[in-house]
Amino acid sequence: MVLPVITYGNPLLREQVSPVSDFTPIRELVDDMFDTMAEKGGIGLAANQVSVNEDLFIVEIADLEDEEDSGPLVFINSEILSATGSATMEEGCLSVPDIRAPVTRPDVISLKYQDISGKECTAEFSGMLARVIQHEKDHLKGIFFTDRLSPANKMFVKKALKEISTSGKPSKEIVL
Ligand SMILES: [Zn+2]
After folding, report:
1. 95 C-alpha vs ligand 1 centroid, how far in Å?
2. Among 54, 60, 91, 136, which one carries the catalytic annotation?
3. What is the pTM (predicted TM-score) of this model?
4. Structural domain range at position 116
5. Is 46 helix (H, G, I), strand (E, B) or coil?
6. Which of 3, 40, 88, 132 could form a disulfide bond with 50, CB atoms 3.0-4.6 angstroms apart?
């Protein structure tokens, strides 16, 4: 089932999330989140973007550089253990429609998380996967990619963010 994705300006997206303790109802939520992401054309989605304030996000990237597909990935109660390097790439967000801008982030991360069955895992991610994971982790902490823009680019998107807050969409697309 496709869920409504809430957008910039909705106070729920600035709230802290709670850890997942009961993994049984998570499966239906995860299924619905993958349906939602496929419908909207995203590559990552955090639970609070669909109004569920829990420490959970999903990722699925169809065209990774070295692999064909990341497959559907689910990260629950995650924590970044280390982050190294630096890379700048254009980002966008289903909750910040019609804005794309470059963001600088660490390039390689080590992540501790639980999978959908509750199993504890630790893994290293780099490139596009590391970027999307950090973007989704930010959502769970109430941070948007637009918070991480250069001061000049923040100025360029200010009006559009205000328009999203009031009408859900900016009056024109911005690609920086
Ligand atoms: Zn996002």
Report:
1. 6
2. 136
3. 0.96
4. 11-83+107-147
5. strand
6. 3
